[in-house]
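User: Here's a structure from my thesis project, written as structure tokens. My advisor, Dr. K., wants to see whether a designed sequence matches the one we expressed. Can you design one independently, without my sequence as a hint?
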């Protein structure tokens, strides 16, 4: 099931990040007015991390009950713990280290490379962590909001054009080898897991993303433009700056 699709264009990357942050905080507050917990998936990437920094700088963050928010990741670069290129490290620096009242147990980073285990192990570990928070009979929680950056090649999470990881079904996570974007080893949610989410927000800025945005919105084949297959059951939201929306 695919929900409504909205495309919202902002003047530049700064405004885009501020607006996405405001939306995210409002969505969490709306959900918290009726239930708890809320499950949010974080992204890496330039504008993704800018958005997390904007959340950290918003006073509205104090209105959120962070004890009722669980934070997950859509993908991770399989690097040692604390590596500056890990999406987790960047998210902690931009946001998580600044949030009062967020219990450590509500933060669910993908495993870090430990020199012993491979990416398949890491993907299985993350699947097991998802299962711990799944409603009975499900393999994973339903994500309320999935934030996704997008590369100029239209990749989302670590699902790259033409890469076999994009075809994996029957499980929530996949180990990725030979990623065309460094580092080569990654862990990602699968399309199935993303598509089971309530809301999927694709956040993209810059003229170098314009062709990918155009292909994604045109509904190109997922093997060509993975972003086209990043949809939510309630809402698919494309949050763009004017340069990314210029095609
Ligand atoms: O490597 C990644 O790249 C994408 C997009 O990054 P950007 O810098 O072009 O915005 C990101 O969405 C993904 O999480 C990350 O692992």
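Assistant: Designed independently from the structure alone:
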């Amino acid at each position: 099931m695919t929900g409504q699709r909205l495309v919202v264009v902002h003047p530049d990357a700064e405004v885009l990040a501020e607006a996405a942050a405001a939306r995210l905080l409002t969505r969490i507050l709306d959900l918290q007015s009726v239930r708890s917990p809320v499950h949010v998936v974080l992204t890496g990437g330039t504008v993704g991390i800018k958005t997390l920094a904007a959340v950290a700088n918003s006073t509205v963050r104090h209105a959120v009950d962070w004890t009722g928010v669980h934070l997950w990741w859509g993908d991770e670069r399989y690097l040692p713990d604390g590596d500056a290129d890990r999406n987790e490290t960047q998210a902690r620096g931009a946001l998580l280290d600044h949030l009062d009242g967020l219990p450590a147990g509500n933060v669910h980073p993908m495993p870090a490379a430990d020199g012993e285990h491979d990416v398949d192990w890491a993907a299985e570990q993350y699947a097991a962590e998802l299962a711990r928070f799944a409603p009975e009979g499900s393999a994973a929680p339903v994500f309320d909001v999935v934030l996704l950056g997008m590369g100029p090649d239209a990749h989302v999470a670590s699902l790259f054009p033409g890469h076999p990881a994009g075809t994996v079904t029957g499980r929530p996570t996949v180990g990725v080898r030979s990623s065309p974007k460094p580092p080569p080893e990654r862990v990602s949610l699968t399309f199935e897991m993303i598509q089971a989410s309530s809301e999927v927000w694709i956040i993209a800025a810059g003229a170098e993303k314009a062709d990918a945005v155009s292909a994604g919105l045109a509904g190109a084949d997922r093997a060509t433009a993975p972003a086209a297959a990043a949809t939510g059951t309630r809402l698919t939201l494309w949050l763009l700056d004017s340069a990314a929306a210029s095609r």
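When you compare it with your expressed construct, this may help: The chain is about 25% helix and 20% strand.
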